């Protein structure tokens, strides 16, 4: 019932608060997958009921409720103060549930041994859902940030919970904890980045505890290798951090050095520690697995077959709906199906008479169609191309998520280091930040970004195996991020005498080729003209 779902109707409320956990789970799952319009002011009772289920004793129901709340936050209208006030209270509930999950999973040895693996997995799934929802709340809700700035206990509990779960994932031999580790690192990074009102009070008030946490994270990211290199990939099983988690924790360290100058009073020692991290960040700016022609063809083929299969499913559903609406009697259905069978048999006999040299493949096709008609369903051993396509798409995104995060971090680190506009050099003196000199030293060239730009251009221009629309859009988005990073690096370099004229000429020509498929590189071209006008004019 669309109306009941959108306005918090009594039918949906009754199902969410039903005594049967399966009914509650079905209702919450329907809310997550339903295209309803989020309007908490008209659905206060509905969201109250969903929030209640976060504390459900049935962990599967609780996890579904958390997912539903996260969906509300993601789909809520931006810049809505009423919405922020409505959802801000969820932070404390989700934090408490994540703490409870940690307590249950890391209970005493006797209790832990008595807990079934299924129950433990359910607690971990609940924690994972809570952490994912907390990341969305901190990113989208300014009221949550304000409350973290004002409330010391909330800050202390948040960072303590993060450290507890991170320590658990480092000690656990369960490979399923990778997603949990990445969500912990993501939330920590989100809290630390550009939130001095949260970080500095926590660091000062917690004293040795906060210093110990940050130093431990610092040591962890320094000693963990990136799995993007061949040597690290061979020994990836011994790495305690995934690439995505390591990048997020690198962001935590860099934010701490930038916002907390007392983290290490020895400026020289800190410089030696930060530069390797920035160099490691730069090492992630590579395409993990360049798509071969065969892989691209497989993507296109699977995508096309998945679309055909989805169209067939939609057609089948439409036919079933029409039959249900018409309420055709069983005798009439049987008579119609018998007539169809007779027509197909007559058509088959006619084809055999006209074409006696029928190929084996066509005979098999006719036999298959006959089997489908007799059984009234598709063969059981058919390939689910829709599921296969989703698996390929998820695998592709998984392999590129670290690159995407590395590009975003590079863009943020280099965004403020460009030369000030002409005429303002004498009007203001920009204060040098703790990381600025290190960033300039590490990101003093653009060659790796130029390689990425050309690789993405080649993928988008491929005529032998064009990418499916979804992957092509993601490649285009990644290339746009590369263009932003290039613009920042060129602005940071300015008109320095060390600039390579031939290299800049090649870069300009590469930008022109990319512009045909990626108009967003125009910003990079403008920066190139501003910083190196002679080189660009010569190239033109």
Account of the protein in words:
This protein has 540 residues and is mainly α. The protein is 74% helix and 0% strand. It is flat and about 85 Å long. Residues 1-9, 229-237 and 356-379 have low confidence and may be disordered.
Number of helices: 27
Radius of gyration equals 29 Å
User: Which percent range fits the helix content?
Assistant: over 70%
Assembly annotation? single chain
Which blocks of ≥5 consecutive residues have pLDDT under 50? 1-9, 229-237, 356-379
What is the helix/strand order? HHHHHHHHHHHHHHHHHHHHHHHHHHH
Number of DSSP-assigned strands: 0
The rounded distance between the terminal residues' Cα atoms is 62 Å
Mean pLDDT: 76
Which structural category do the helix and sheet elements fall into?
A: mainly alpha
Characterize the main sheet: none
Shape: flat
Please sum up the structure shown:
This protein has 540 residues and is mainly α. 74% of the residues lie in helices and 0% in strands.
Topology readout:
Elements: H1 2-7, H2 10-16, H3 21-33, H4 44-53, H5 59-75, H6 81-88, H7 90-105, H8 109-114, H9 117-140, H10 142-150, H11 152-171, H12 178-192, H13 196-206, H14 208-223, H15 230-234, H16 243-259, H17 267-283, H18 293-326, H19 330-354, H20 360-375, H21 385-414, H22 436-442, H23 447-461, H24 469-493, H25 501-515, H26 522-531, H27 533-539
Helix pairs in contact: 3-5, 4-5, 5-9, 7-9, 7-11, 9-12, 10-13, 11-12, 12-16, 13-14, 14-16, 16-17, 16-21, 17-22, 18-21, 19-20, 21-24, 23-24, 23-25, 24-26, 25-26, 25-27, 26-27
